[in-house]
TrEMBL record:
Residues binding D-ribulose 5-phosphate: D8, H9, G67, T68, G69, I70, G71, N100, R110, R133, R137
Source superkingdom: Bacteria
Active site: C66 (proton acceptor), H99 (proton donor)
Provenance organism: Magnetococcus marinus (strain ATCC BAA-1437 / JCM 17883 / MC-1)
Keyword terms of this UniProt record: Isomerase
Protein name stated in the entry: Ribose-5-phosphate isomerase
One GO MF term attached to the UniProt entry: ribose-5-phosphate isomerase activity
Length: 148
């Protein structure tokens, strides 16, 4: 599985930390889509690049980061087929996969510590989608996106 990473200037340190952490895992290919420093950039540009990459490759996932995670998650969820979940703890990271089949994990570089981010990333990668009653809801989300 490929895991795409992108962030704005508010989360480049956490992005680099998480990519180094995941580099130890088997069977994952990490793709860094930027940004690489603390010079101010526009998060919608990085969200768009990552979302297009995830949508173009079935089964791959993405991790987006900005200062709080709020702006970049809003930008990502404008793309039909993207289910970007802003998570703050292990519980939400697990359930966003189990119930919502989130294909993009969103974290705040200024609000999430490295150890918590590692735990959330592990849960998000290792938790399977439960399907069942949850699929009906995801189908409605996709149907609504086509109506707009």
């Amino acid at each position: 599985m490929r895991i795409f990473f992108a962030c704005d200037h508010g989360a480049s340190e956490l992005k680099q930390h998480l990519m180094a952490y995941l580099a130890k895992r088997d069977r994952v290919e990490l793709v860094d889509l930027g940004c690489d420093g603390t010079t101010s950039v526009d998060y919608p540009d990085y969200a768009a690049t990552l979302c297009k990459a995830v949508l173009a490759s079935a089964g791959d996932r993405g991790v987006l980061l900005c200062g709080t995670g709020i702006g970049i998650s809003i930008a990502a969820n404008r793309f039909a087929g993207i289910r970007a979940a802003l998570c703050h703890d292990a519980y939400t990271a697990r359930l966003c996969r189990e119930h919502n089949d989130a294909n993009v994990l969103v974290l705040g570089g200024r609000t999430t510590g490295p150890a918590v981010a590692e735990e959330m990333l592990d849960l998000w990668l290792d938790t399977p989608y439960a399907g069942g009653r949850h699929q009906r809801r995801l189908d409605k989300i996709e149907s609504n996106a086509r109506e707009v």
